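USER:
Working in pairs, take the chain set out below, taking as long as you need, and write a paragraph about the fold.
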Amino acid sequence: MNLLDEDFSNNKTKKTSNVIKIIIVFIVLIVIAIIGIVAYMMYLESSILRVYVNDVENVEVKNLLSFEDDGTIYVPVRAISSYLGYSCYNGEYSKRSEDKSKCYVETTEEVVNLTLNSNKIYKLNLEEGDNNYTYIYMDKPVKAVEGELYITTDGMQKVFNTTFFYDQENNAITIYTTPYLITSYTNTVLDYGYTRLSETFENEKAITKNMLVVSNDRYYGVINATDGTEILECKYDNVRYQEATGDFIVSSDGKYGIIGTDKRTKVDINFNSIELMDYDAGLYLVNRNNRYGVVDLNGNTVIHAENDQIGVDISRFEENDLKTGYILVDSLIPVMRNNKWGLFDTDGNQLVEFEYDSFGYIASSNREATNLLVIPDYNVIVACIDNRYTLLNASGEQPIKAFVDDIYMVISGGEKHYQMTANDKTYDVEEYLDRLGVLQSTTNNNTNTTSSDQTNNQVNNETTEENTEQNSEGQQNNGEEQNNEETQNNEEQQGNE
């Protein structure tokens, strides 16, 4: 081979080597670019919030979420309702209207009332069929955005009985409804050694707190949903979850008590029935041998179980918009003993002796009159003795130092007015209370001035000395024949007993 051929061969080899190097560099650059693109796409993917409702991605629900600067997430009540199995309406459940400052959501088992600027929500269990609401609190009040009511995700969980998990690391939100969770855990319960879940609606709510009320076909207990560990042993005749307190009412051999999730017995299993009266006051209504009393959340006696009835039937006073008949005007507990009514406060102090025939006015002959139990703006209730009426304030005292013929509500033009009659004369109750110096709201329910004494004297005079003496005598007279006849008449008219 000559030198020319050798140089040509060397040059060709170098060129080939250079091409190979260029190709390798190009491939490396392409690989790096691909890795970069994949990494960027993964970054974009991870930065996109994904929302799942019952394990199915839901873009519509994601678009409903409103993120605040402080990290709080709000949702529109009406729009979110349908995705969580509820219907939503304006106004209140018990008083239908188009008031957009209020709304209620509803399923076949429960109704929940919400009000603008309030974090207190009222729940009515439709399965139980009574008129007494329970209530719980959300972390923040209801707010309005462009005319729509919004609640936080904490509120969403409490209103719609759902769970809400925000995995910020993976930028994913997961929402579960109670019916979906119940279905999901049905077979798991069998694996844990139990035969079924409790089908009571209140017990189903416990699943949102990662608890399951279970049965072995004979007894009931409570377990942790995640690992099946016992919270309450499966040995009770019945178990009922208390959403407001997080405790359980349990029964054994026909007796009821209260046990917490820490297994501590809060109320001994010693009563024929137990019912939560009021969460804020921390009071339970108890029944022992058909005699009623009140205990607090730790089982301490507030009112001894020796009464015929505690609380009034509010179904007869629908226009009063009352949520419960157990506690009136914030702190008064109506109690009946021997067919006479008295008043206790929430601390168990008796403010009014057992001397009244009933609480509330039931309209009869006056077509314009509407049944009346409380005048809320003044925190007074209507009380009756011998078919004559007076008012009692939150201290159990009478702002009006007399008994009149009627005290009732009149609704005109959609507005409520309160009137009373004495000797065929009609008075505006609110104007009258203003003249007495009785302040509105709970600031001062017991303000009396010199002018109030003069005004009371006016009513006393106009109701005649004879009627006043009869009423005074009626408060003290215990004649059996008269009381029996009056009680029977009032049972027919008032229906409170």
Notes: The longest strand covers residues 415-422. The CA atoms of residues 295 and 301 lie 4 Å apart. The domain at 52-160 is CATH 3.30.457.10 (Copper Amine Oxidase; Chain A, domain 1).
